[in-house]
Design brief:
Oligomer: single chain
Strand content: 25-35%
Shape: elongated
């Protein structure tokens, strides 16, 4: 289970976010090797006397530094395009949740159930219980089953918002009059936090998102008691 009291972002909990982390490490290693090569060339040119001026005009070297960047770009572009395709793919979701952004809170509607909807407001600092995270805890958490493909339909009723959960690799804009969709899949239970990442007004930083991922049996018990 991901521990919320971390100094940085929470660990990845979805296959998409894990792929994004692997791609980040892949691109970072390429950048590191390029930087090391450039640093080595600079040091060599500053410390080595140039006795052969003909080395400044070499067709072989010019061919290499023309082809090599193209190969590097291909090595970065191919996995990037693969992840972009995976992020936009919709794999027969088992459940659909409708999320509406308001000034300044979120409302959720479980479209597969009758009369299962609620608003999710941030808990003010004086009302927090011990262990709650300031500016991140809400009065109604969004309870979802783990290891289940869930489709999120996201829109807004007033201004631009953005429904963002970093640990799931999700960031989808909530646009008035338009219905965007994304899918999420959590591989383990836990509490996963997010916030609106669009500058939507004076209380932009006070509309957090809390997803509580639980086993399917626990979710069925929660939904039956909530209805």
């Amino acid at each position: 289970m991901a521990h919320p009291l971390q100094l940085g972002l929470q660990d990845a909990t979805s296959p998409i976010m894990e792929e994004l982390l692997h791609f980040h490490d892949h691109a970072l290693m390429i950048v590191f090797m390029i930087s090391s090569l450039v640093l080595y060339i600079i040091v060599s040119m500053l410390t080595t006397p140039l006795t052969h001026t003909s080395t400044m005009d070499a067709q072989e070297v010019e061919t290499i530094w023309t082809i090599l960047p193209a190969i590097i770009l291909i090595a970065i572009a191919l996995p990037s395009l693969r992840i972009l395709y995976m992020m936009d793919e919709i794999n027969n979701p088992c459940m659909t949740i409708k999320t509406m952004g308001h000034q300044w809170y979120w409302s959720y509607e479980y479209t597969d159930y009758t009369d299962l909807s609620f608003d999710s407001y941030m808990i003010p600092t004086p009302d927090l219980n011990p262990g709650n995270l300031r500016l991140l805890e809400v009065d109604n958490r969004t309870v979802l089953p783990m290891e289940t493909t869930i489709r999120m339909l996201i829109s807004s009723e007033d201004v631009l918002h953005s429904w963002t959960v970093p640990s799931l690799g999700l960031k989808t804009d909530a646009i008035p009059g338009r219905l965007n969709q994304t899918t999420l899949l959590s591989s383990r239970p836990g509490l996963y936090y997010g916030q609106c990442s669009e500058i939507c007004g004076s209380n932009h930083s006070f509309m957090p998102i809390v997803l509580e991922m639980v086993p399917l049996t626990h979710f069925e018990k929660w939904s039956s008691t909530t209805l």
